[in-house]
Amino acid sequence: MKKVFPILLGGCLLTAGQSSGQAKISADSLVRYYSRLAKGDEADKALLTDKMYALTKSKKETDWLTAARFFYQLKKNNVSDSIQQVAAKQFPTGVVARNNAVEVIYNENDPVKKEALYKAWLKKFPPDKRSKDMIVYDYAANSIGTAYADADNLPKALEYANSIMSPFWKGQGWAGTAARILKHGHTAEAKVLLKKAVEDAYEFKTTRKNEEGAMFAATGYPGYLSSYAQLLFNDKEYDSALVYLKRAEQAETPVRPQVNEMYAKVLIAKGDYQQAFVRLSEVAAQGQLNAGSRGLLAETYAKVRGDNQLEKYIDSLKGGLDDKMKAEFAKQIIKVPAPGFTLKDVDGNTVSLSDYKGKTVVLDFWATWCGPCKASFPAMKKAMEKYKNDPNVKFLFVHTWEKEENAAASAKKFITGNGYPFQVLMDLKDPATGINKVVDSYKVQGIPTKFVIDGKGDIRFRFTGFSGGDDAAVAEVSAMVTLANQ
Question: Which domains does the chain have, with CATH numbers?
């Protein structure tokens, strides 16, 4: 399991050759100054480039890391990578060397050997508990615990799960270990870990919300609640499961599909088919049915109504969904020229955005390592099917931010293996800069991100993420295509 570390910043110099008579500027002020230059005009960027090269003459690793960071912001990724490579040699006990050395631990699969490597790494790079990058050590320790969990060594797995030092990461460590030991049937121990994760995340949402990393720690709260409720359900503790499902329901809007599905399962187990039917009908009306909740709706429908008109009933529930989506997205319409591009698809064919002038293009940025991207694909397939007879609507799926050498082959294997009729274009890293040019030109910060481009070449909509419901996702795409064409 490979872990990529962020560049960590400490103090830095204005220039490596600063005279002793000059007033010293705080590290925070310098970073703000460099950031302004990075966002400035070409002259500012040229000045920043000179200052960053000057920092590489420093005898402080923090200056080298600052240089690497800002070369990355200047979209000179290869220069940034080269600086970090040299820094590892220049500072053999420094941050970059430490982060490179830990990769050996991640690449080892045997838990005993992994632990021995970990202890040797700790000896060479002892942690400073006053440092803000203790998370690096937590990642490494978690890697050992994960290996022991997979090998069904429960005592060791629990030891490492409880050894995490960064307060904001404890919940994630407990929940991750719980998921792995569950595969070996350790339900009681997993319940303990998940309950700790739930209460820890709740504290960060409430009494500890001002602590460092609180927002990150709190994000896991709905998921931990859902996972814990699942274990309570499995143990037939239905009333307790409902308590935690209600908390999950109150924790976020919209409610995640698995919470609605689990809620219905608990109600069905308690024999309350009517309430389960009402809840699942509400889910259907929002377009949030997935394969699991659709099956549960069919079960409750048969109990409550007893006819064979389920699909007609579902269609009646979501009858106003398209109009609702149009009203919602009409407020979000934009008009920005879409950056042009030319890419190869997974079969080696050359495709340009200009090939589809006059057509509405749905552009979907994704990657094989991106779970939400892949989760959205069944819905995107349905959206494509809706427009299969419309020659003026085109779907293009751009694979980007690749993490492996054979990215095109991997993307093609995934698409064909799952029967998706998608045309996949490969936005590979530019050899000169190390940048994925197309995703960068569209200023994408996270994937999946989709764009709807009208026939005149203007971006009319941009949306990130996946709602979790196939019908809602299809209605979203349909609304945006319709509005883009008006």
Answer: 1-107 (no CATH), 126-135+163-317 (1.25.40.10), 336-484 (3.40.30.10)
